[in-house]
């Protein structure tokens, strides 16, 4: 079947995390290889693929809203729903008007067969590993090296929808990254559902012992990628505290390719809430980890996630989290509000926090974390940062924009031919949200 001859154009809409973005790119490549054509922005498509997220109730609602929008835009279009929302809600999704196929995560490698109409609903099956050779409209490329989660945080639905740990082999990762570097990508972002758990399956540990590897876990991957020729850098997307080992910290401190940035979700700074969340740490343990990292890599960017409004979060416990965040002073903070997810232990916990209180706490936390981010950015005034220039200019100013290796977004004047290149930019000014620079 040739889509061009039959006018079969597809559009992929991606919600959620970097893993989903990676998997959408992999599906895009599979469809193009099979002869289908991606619609251009503004054009109506014949096939809509919605790659859903279910990490929060809002993500569920947004995913379903997108499905409705596509059905109204073209009632004759086929809508394929995939992603994490399909893992536990497939039957209800098929009842939504316009939905033709529900495709679970394990079936994303069969997307071409689905779009051809050969398959309506894949329920089981061992998937082939997805790979990408490009990354549409991005200056950076994501590479998924791991799937599944071994943690059981009481508020999180992800382990239920992503399943057991699955790691991509070092050989395959190196091949994929090498191809992307040859394509001209200057930043590779390693991602996974539980990135730090790469290689923790029994078979990987057995191989490591047999061959006497001096590097274990994620560092083993990083050492292999460090040997790839080319002017590029490596960033870790997000990593849980227990996987930030001394070996990883030392490797980053000595690496010529690793970005000086770690995103470590802390979620709370109150020990009682951490216990209710089933997080295996105390606030002091978190602080000690931050101190170890900064002692070894003094100006590293440490970014984090903080969850507001967890059941049982009293005023005192919220103040403890505020004090914790003030003490560690992250360079950027993603603030979540608690969302009840059916099937998780937190769903039925007592002492739910009222929404107006959560809103006030969110605003207080945001104000404080913005101050911390501003202070971090100001510490680089007058210095040169190596910035990867993005493919789109800043909407408000029309200036070029890009991120430094320590995750500071800088705006500066320049020509379009600087896009997708690494350039030195001198930091010359700030406001509460923007960092201004000059490229000479």
Please compute the radius of gyration using only Cα atoms. Answer: 22 Å
Head-to-tail CA distance between termini: 53 Å
CATH C-level label of the largest domain:
Alpha Beta
Summarize the amount of helix as a percent range: 25-40%
| CATH arch. level architecture of the largest domain | 2-Layer Sandwich
Number of helices: 14
Pick out the low-confidence regions. Answer: 1-5
Spatial strand sequence of the major β-sheet = 2-1-3-4-5-6
Bin the strand percentage: 15-25%
Structural class: alpha/beta
Tally of extended strands? Answer: 18
Task: Provide the CATH topology of the largest domain.
Answer: Transcription Regulator spoIIAA
**Number of spatially distinct domains:** 4
**Largest beta-sheet details:** 6 strands, parallel
The average pLDDT score comes to: 92
Overall body shape: globular
Annotate the secondary structure layout.
Elements: H1 3-6, E1 9-14, H2 18-33, E2 37-38, E3 47-52, H3 57-73, E4 78-83, H4 86-94, E5 99-103, H5 111-116, E6 121-122, E7 141-147, H6 158-162, E8 166-167, H7 170-182, E9 187-192, H8 202-211, H9 218-226, E10 233-236, H10 246-254, E11 261-263, H11 271-276, H12 283-296, E12 301-308, H13 315-328, E13 332-337, H14 355-378, E14 384-389, E15 400-404, E16 409-412, E17 422-430, E18 435-438
Parallel strand pairs: 1-2, 1-3, 3-4, 4-5, 5-6, 7-9, 9-10, 11-12, 12-13, 16-18
Antiparallel strand pairs: 7-8, 14-15, 14-17, 15-16, 17-18
